[in-house]
């Protein structure tokens, strides 16, 4: 009688596969989200919310001044602060990379102090401490100059580290190649290294611009005139006058007119940078 080989059957796995588990987990998350939205929609008092935050008559009275004055000042404060921060951050980054010890120490101390302090304290320091320490001294540009300086001091600490990382990310062979072509170290840094570094750090610098745009709301602690108000101050003043929160909502929507497009630009830049690396 011939022997027959019998292949034992594999035991059938019990339970869900990994893919099925992910599908179930995703389905539960969607269900929780939908349930939360429905619960909010059913339980919220939409009449009271509309009465407090969505008075069309009050919103209409804000235009065009909310754009021509408040939004314009907000953009102006942000752009000037970003310019000051970028210039100062570049200087501090180069000091941080310097072979001279005191330069590196001063840059490190500046970064640690201004990166650790809240932006509010910097604004109070510029608006109160500087006039007390130097009586009769006026910062160029008045309120606009004070805001640009305050935002610039805050942004420079973060930008300096971003720029330093970008410079160090450029391959060392780029500097060696430039030196072999007769470039001095300074000229090679300005003409070869820094332009390549900025292509690397452009997305985080744009993200810093978005953060500065929101930090410009701290200008109210400097004491501004009616013509110098930015979005937050403008919205709060009208909310107090009308005893309604609609101006604050409109001011917030105006912020989104800038931050959402800038956020989209940052994501596009990051995607292109990743494609270039690949």
Automatic annotation (TrEMBL):
The question of whether Acetylation is a record keyword is answered with no
Q: How does it sit in the membrane?
A: Multi-pass membrane protein
Give me the stretches of Basic residues compositional bias: 10-20
Q: Where is it predominantly found? A: membrane
Q: Report which residue ranges the record marks as coiled coil.
A: none
Locations listed in the record? Cell membrane
**PROSITE patterns reported in the protein's UniProt record:** ABC_TM1
Residue ranges spanning the membrane: these are 27-44, 75-97, 109-133, 139-160, 181-202, 248-266
Check the record and name the InterPro entries matching this protein.
AA_ABC_transptr_permease_3TM (IPR010065), ArtM/GltK/GlnP/TcyL/YhdX-like (IPR043429), MetI-like (IPR000515), MetI-like_sf (IPR035906)
Domain ABC transmembrane type-1 positions = 71-266
Q: Which UniProt keywords apply?
A: Amino-acid transport, Cell membrane, Membrane, Transmembrane, Transmembrane helix, Transport
Q: Give the signal peptide, or none.
A: none
Tell me the segments the record calls region Disordered: 1-20
NCBIfam families the UniProt entry points to: HEQRo_perm_3TM
- PANTHER family reported for this sequence: GLUTAMINE TRANSPORT SYSTEM PERMEASE PROTEIN GLNP, MEMBRANE COMPONENT OF AMINO ACID ABC TRANSPORTER
Task: Identify its protein family.
Answer: Belongs to the binding-protein-dependent transport system permease family. HisMQ subfamily.
What is the protein named?
Answer: Amino acid ABC transporter permease
* UniProt source species: Streptomyces labedae
